[in-house]
Amino acid sequence: MPELPEVETIRRSLLPHTVGARIVRVEVRERRLRRPLAPDFEARLRGRRIDGIDRRGKYLLFDVGDADVLLVHFGMSGSLELKPERAPLASHDHVRLRLDSGIAMVFNDPRRFGLMRVGRVEELDELGNVGPDPLAVRWSAEELRELTRRRRLPIKNLLMDQRVLAGIGNIYASEMLYRAGIRPRRCAGRLRRSDLVRLAAAMPLVLEEAVRLGGSSISDYRDANGRSGFFQMRHAVYDRAGEPCRRCGAVIRRIVLSGRSSFYCPTCQR
Ligand SMILES: [Zn+2]
Fold first, then answer.
1. How far is CA 137 from CA 88, 201, 204, 243, in A?
2. pLDDT reported for residue 216
3. Which residues are catalytic?
4. For residue 100, what are the CA distances in angstroms to 24, 76, 85, 226?
5. Quick one: how far is CA 193 from the chain centroid?
6. Interval between CA 9 and ligand 1 midpoint (Å)
7. Quick one: pLDDT at residue 34?
């Protein structure tokens, strides 16, 4: 599942090829995504110019003018790829937007948990529950204290709650907690100030480094130009159970929290 760095990488790879271009044709092969595509989806996009692309957590928001946005979420397996407009459609290519620049933006999603909607930001109820974007804010220990206060759940689960912080999933929650030296199971509300200071510093470091490396390419993730990311080679703990910690040599452990695998170093994380 793409997380914030992967979605940000897709956004950046789309910008030079789509902003300023007009959508001349909207072709839909499959309407049954996480929510069915609205009956007026094609009509509301046709002829619109893409004026910019924003991101909130794992959502992309294409500014298509008249206060409307095209909202895209990648779900478990979605991707947006730029292709020559006449390239043949592949299996699971559900929506193709042809641009007047001669290229097409194609939404592909084998598992169909992704989402595409057009509307005003305030109409898009998906965005109502989305918490602040961890890259848009410089976090301090005090702000993290506000988020964690009286929360009696493991800090890793809190970091992955999209209503609290938008865009962090299993990979980056694991990596941030390693960088901050905090075990994933620690109770969020009981973290000390020194823990929160380290976590506030670790969050942007991990996310920015991941964006710089184009995200983590696991389960076939690619950016809009079909390029893989390289952050998976820097993973300190994620999916490294049984391997030595790169800092101290201790064996990385795997535990299960709320049904998800979690990884940590028993020496570097307390
Ligand atoms: Zn270690």
1. 42, 12, 9, 34
2. 82
3. 2-3, 58, 260
4. 6, 30, 10, 21
5. 28
6. 29
7. 96
Block mean pLDDT (10 aa), the chain, length 270 = 92 95 98 97 98 96 97 94 92 97 95 96 93 91 96 97 95 97 98 98 95 80 80 90 98 96 97
Report which of 114, 23, 111 is spatially closest to residue 66, judged by C-alpha positions.
23
Distance CA 14, CA 236 (A): 29
Residue 142 tokens read as 């005090």
Q: How far is the CA of 2 from the centre of ligand 1 (A)?
A: 27
Q: 24 CA to middle of ligand 1, Å?
A: 54
State residue 60's pLDDT score. 97
pTM, whole model, 2 decimals? Answer: 0.92
The first and second tokens of residue 59, run together, are: 């959502």
- Chain-centroid distance of CA 42 in Å reads 26
Question: How far, in Å, CA of 154 to CA of 145, rounded?
Answer: 14
Query: How many angstroms separate the alpha carbon of residue 15 from the centre of ligand 1?
Result: 39
Distance CA 174, CA 239 (A): 10
Q: Exposed/middle/buried for 112, CB within 10 Å: 0-12, 13-18, 19+? A: middle
Q: Tell me the CA–centroid distance for residue 235 and ligand 1, in Å.
A: 13
pLDDT score at 186: 98
Describe the chain by its helix, strand, coil percentages, rounded to 5.
30, 25, 45
* Among 102, 99, 58, CA closest to 78: 58
By CB neighbour count within 10 A (0-12 exposed, 13-18 middle, 19+ buried), where does 192 fall?
exposed
| Span from the CA of 270 to the centroid of ligand 1 (angstroms) | 10
